[in-house]
Amino acid sequence: MGFLDHSTNNIILDAVLTDKGRQLLSRNDGSFQIVKYALSDDEVDYTIVKKFGRTVGKEKIEKNTPILEALTTTNVAQKYRLRSISVPNLTRLPSLTLDGVTSDTITLNVVNTRSSSVTVKQSIGGDQLVPTELVDQVFRVTMNNLFLQLSGVRPVTIDSENIATYLVTRGSSLDTVTGGASFAGTVQVKSSLTTTMFNTYGVASDKTLIRTYVTVTGQQSGAVKSFLIKINKTS
Known about the structure:
Layout lengths: L1 E4 L5 E4 L4 H7 L21 H6 L1 H11 L30 E4 L6 E5 L5 E9 L14 E7 L3 E3 L6 E2 L4 E7 L12 E8 L5 H7 L7 E10 L5 E9 L3
């Protein structure tokens, strides 16, 4: 959903179905039902509050934030969803980090290094533990289905832009220091990756290299981690 500004004191709510929603509605068998909704604050610049203070900053955000129209593409709608948290003294939100990789880059090739194990860990700054309600029980993993797949897991959806979405449950144990959850999996180059695809999707200056990203999102915390995958045509 989005808000359409008609330059009056009235706000008109614009609600549209995503491509996935239209697909479900097209079944026309009575199974399509809207049972919940989520709110997000995409495009809100909170540095305005730091600059002008809470009272004036809030007013400036309300008056100056562009009014966005609703989006039908699932993977770009609501990137930063709002969360209700009962902990009154929480000063930080959990974040995700790619374990064992310093540059957030993983290099693969189609010859002898077609896969890599990845571990994404949830943590929180300072001396706080991750609140129980923000411990991620499920992670949403998205990647380009033309190039990559998550080994041993079937995607729940593949959208019109070939972005595959996987839902993966967290590891069985929590971090003993932070109380955060973790996701471990194997990212694998697809066997269908051909020379023609390198010519089409390869970097402009080097058609033996494809650059693509994997994004991991914690379903409970909303924390997001993206990392780069470089796929070489040769070893």
